[in-house]
Write a structure and sequence with these properties.
single chain, 4 helices
Length: 165
Amino acid sequence: MQNVKPKSSAPLLYVIRNERLTPPPHLLAGERVMLFDGECVLCQRLIRVLIRADRAKKIHLATAQSPAGQDLLRWAGLPTDNFNTIAYIANGEVSVRSQAFIAALGQLGWPWRALKILRFFPRALRDGVYNGIARNRYRWFGKLPAGTPPPHDGQGRRYLDGGQG
């Protein structure tokens, strides 16, 4: 009998599969997490928008610098010391760059979900824009000191590590 792998709509280059078949640390089955750079002003602003838009609290959060974020990056096989993208982990799959952004939008209500239309733009264009912004994010928007707390998440328990940066 052949090993049949579930198909994903995202191209393999943009979805990293964990072939070890171990569940991601700090997550229960069916939970999702967005990893972001906790020292990036732009990233923190976008996370504030995500917190307001995700009224159902479907997406957990972790900074790449936090202990939980570092564990998840190691699990996903992503660099832990030079994190220059967002990562979205759901159902044992890791999406990065623009694909992570689009995957997270799919979990939000309207009108945010309508932005999933961005997936129809060529990946090279989406990721080119994404990489250009990521490369210049500190210069354009600034860099926060290490240990700056992430945006407040209200009363929900969104941060896997209790909001520690």
